[in-house]
Specification:
98 residues, 6 strands, elongated, two-stranded antiparallel ribbon, alpha+beta, 2 helices, Molybdopterin biosynthesis moea protein, domain 2, 16% helix
Length: 98
Amino acid sequence: MPATYTIHLAKGVKALDGFGHAMEPHLRTLGLPTKLNFQKIELLADVFVCREGQILNVEQCKILKLLGHKMGNFQLKLLCERKGKGKFTEFEAGAQFL
């Protein structure tokens, strides 16, 4: 799935402010250059988690999930419906309901 927008994390402690110190090893395994600095997670360099249009890998998706960014789009294409006492209606092939 391609990224719908760019996510950039700035160097320092502000970007990962919401995480406890116990998360630092996990963030490091996901590829983020981090270290503990007085029980705060410090990002050692500026990081682009993803860029718009780039295909996301597993690690990027996990980081986005931890940061609370949702990039998925859900669409439903109805082919038919049943109403009331079994009345069945088929829709046109190109009809979409979002």
